[in-house]
Design brief:
This protein is of the alpha/beta class. It has helices at residues 3-51, 110-125, 159-172, 191-207, 226-229, 263-269, 274-293, 300-309, 327-338, 347-361; strands at residues 58-60, 65-70, 88-92, 99-103, 134-138, 142-146, 178-183, 213-217, 233-243, 246-255.
């Protein structure tokens, strides 16, 4: 055996011996690493609790979920210097406030309230103090959220389809200890379809045997009517103040529903051209005037509520859609095209078919 082979054999033997030694210490090293990770996490919890005035939550097996002066732990750290986070109280229970319908202007902080509710619940269950002055939280096994808008182009699913899939998953997996947070359900389709879906979802959650605690943020102010019809539904809104042509977001939660979304104000704040904003106001006034002149209600909301409360009452069909005036014609054309075998059409027959469609449009 050559010298090089002997050196290589010795090196391999030393390497095997070293590995055997390491294997003996592998389990203790892993245990120490796990313990250090737990200590690091607890030290972070303690650091945050001291520096950001977090309080110890009380977890219990009842149904009451109460937070006093709750804050969003991420947003409050990113505020400009000198600006304090506006805290809010929140209460959910299965006696008289199982579902909160939350309304308010765009950008007023509705989604932030939903997110801080989820974060406070999650932080409490993982052993952390929470950003609030007081928190008494019922044990929660699942936090369901339907927040934000997205589509699934690769799967051929629209934003609305994704929204419905996720909402269906929530409804089909509820438990009596679930916390449900819904943001703008139904906004991905036409106005009246969206209102109808949002209304029926709120009713279903109220009547479900599990009675999940639910926070439902929406721009459909028609849902405020649910408080009068369902005993465990309560209306809240995020306050604001109008100053001339400006709107000031107070970001404070208050009882009662809001009746205005201030979407055009937000468009102005975003930098839309003044001519566009002026035209939007003109169109809004025209639509409001038309809705007041209808004989089925004082507003489009009145139409929906009458149809919901008096099914089969014979109210005229009204849908806030650009295509309603031609919907029957479009349906006829669709049926005509579906019944046509394009592969068997001669050029003359195709021209005649086109002329027929054109006649229907007229």
């Amino acid at each position: 055996m050559g010298a090089e082979e002997q050196i290589l054999r010795i090196e391999l033997e030393l390497y095997d011996a070293l590995l055997n030694e390491l294997y003996d210490y592998l389990a203790p090293v892993q245990t120490n690493g796990q313990l250090l990770a737990i200590m690091d996490c607890l030290c972070c919890f303690a650091h945050n609790a001291i520096h950001y005035q977090y309080k110890k939550p009380v977890l219990h097996s009842g149904d009451e979920w109460v937070v006093k002066e709750g804050r969003h732990p991420v947003i409050e750290r990113n505020l400009p210097p000198g600006e304090a986070y506006i805290s809010n109280d929140m209460e959910l229970n299965k006696d008289d406030q199982q579902i909160i319908i939350l309304t308010g202007p765009n950008m007023s902080g509705k989604s932030a309230l939903l997110r801080q509710t989820a974060l406070i619940t999650l932080m409490a269950h993982m052993g952390s103090f929470v950003p609030a002055s007081e928190a008494r939280l019922s044990l929660t096994d699942k936090i369901f959220t339907r927040v934000g808008a997205s589509d699934n182009l690769s799967g051929g699913e629209s934003t609305f389809m994704v929204e419905m899939n996720e909402t269906a998953s929530i409804i089909n997996n509820l438990t009596h200890r679930s916390l449900v947070l819904l943001d703008e359900i139904g906004r991905g389709t036409s106005t009246y379809d969206g209102i109808s879906i949002a209304w029926s979802i709120a009713e279903h959650l109220h009547q479900a045997p599990q009675q999940p605690k639910t926070l439902f943020a929406t721009h459909y102010h028609e849902l405020n009517e649910l408080e009068e019809k369902l005993p465990r539904v309560k209306n809240y809104h995020v306050t604001n103040k109008e100053a001339g042509n400006r709107i000031i977001f107070l970001r404070k939660l208050a009882r009662g529903g809001s009746t205005h979304s201030f979407g055009i104000h937000v468009a102005r704040m975003a930098g839309m051209p003044p001519s566009l904003i002026e035209r939007a106001n003109e169109i809004l006034k025209e639509l409001e005037t038309r809705s007041r002149q209808t004989d089925v209600g004082s507003s489009p909301a009145g139409t929906v509520l009458q149809q919901l409360n008096s099914p089969g009452a014979g109210n005229p069909k009204m849908q806030l859609s650009m295509f309603d005036a031609h919907s029957e014609t479009f349906e006829e054309i669709r049926q005509l095209l579906e019944g046509t075998d394009i592969n068997r059409l001669t050029p003359v027959e195709a021209l005649l078919k086109l002329q027929e469609i054109k006649g229907k449009l007229k």
